TrEMBL record:
Pfam families: Amidase. Residues 24-464 form the Amidase domain. This is Amidase. It comes from Saccharothrix syringae. It is an enzyme of class 3 (hydrolase). Keywords: Hydrolase.
Amino acid sequence: MEWSFHAAEELVAALRAGAVTSVELTDEAIARIERDDEVVNAICVPDFDRARAAAHRADLARARGEDRPLLGVPVTVKESYDVAGLPTTWGMPPHRDHVLAEDAVQVSRLKAAGAVVLGKTNVPLGLQDIQSFNEIYGTTNNPWDHARTPGGSSGGSAAALASGFGALSIGSDIAGSLRTPAHFCGVYAHKPTLGLAANRGMVAPSEPALPVDLDLAVVGPMARTARDLALLLDVMAGPDPLTLGKAHRLALPPARHDRLRDFRVLVLDDHPLIPTGSAVRAAVDRVADALADGGARVERHSPLLPDLTEAATLYMQLLVSGSVARFPMESHEELLTRIAGLAADDHSLDTARLRALVFSHRDWIEANNRRELHRHGWRRLFAEFDAVVCPITPTPAFPHDHHPNPMERRIAVDGAEHPYFDQLVWAGLATMPGLPATAVPAGRSPEGLPVGVQLIGPVFEDRTPLRLAELLEREIGGFQAPK
């Protein structure tokens, strides 16, 4: 029997029943990677010897009567996480030999839960792209179409899951980096509420692994089923034991509802700053129809929805001003000269991104204050709705585009070109206010590419979109392996 595409939940049940061993699961996963990954290039740092040893220890532990949530289940880890004995480079050539002596807190939690780490998955340079390629490890291809990207920055993890390389993976998200690869590869991902899951050890190799509170960025689970997302989130969630964990204990509220007909859902498919492609619009409609058919209350408009244009602008300001502090693009003086030539009435996202490159602390505080108003708006909206369904990006996976200047790239939406980074506005809708969002498969494009949508939920009510994802999986189907 082949196990490679079984859910983690099913593998745990089979391991408990003695129907398979961890060594058998691990050997099968490694054989599949060695056979298929030459063309996908998802696993950039294999760790097979230690994986086999961990699988053997898991089987011995189970024989002694031990039982942990992921005991013996093969998984992968995004390259950006520290794993003791392996390099963490973030795809940056100067750090190709940066080998860590300590696991990231989430890797420690995986191992404590009994998971078997097969290796690390590929990322873009500095985690700064919607694709996954770098000079150290090369390009990761979409398992559905090797000429297309699997997304980024957790593209290697999504491609690994779609290819059957392990049952689960952990990634991170600041600009859709969990959700976009899931959407492009036809798998599931969950962007937790900001601050829900500790991030120590998921840090650029030039920085120390400290228990800092990140702005916008989160770490989160990826899987091939909605229930597996919830299983892995239970392992990942919780404060860092070095800081908030000293006093705080995790107590996530249950999902608001257990039945589809009890959900109140706002469905969005139009954004004022970029059109939604026909394939994605069809996927949103498919989910809306399934909700309505299941008896959920579905609305297409609400005066409670925060302004989408301002939300996208704030997101770009916060994202870019934070990113440039870590990864400078060009001299401050040159940027000031370029910005001085901009028209005062130019409010495009390109201009917002450029101006954010030279944000002062006062500028950031003003943007953050406006963000708090949006957060309050979302609290009011979620008093009337339980979830928001909307796109993740305007298109399915796009062809590889390695133009050296990402600001000059373009994304084609039904034949019309738009600035490359404008496609982030939908991902930013949940990221800017720090809301949880679950990416779910929602069918195929006319070309046969996966298309997903995101389910945005109330702050710290992560179980609500996760439960809705599980109910939708029953109605519209879920993961399918690439042909």
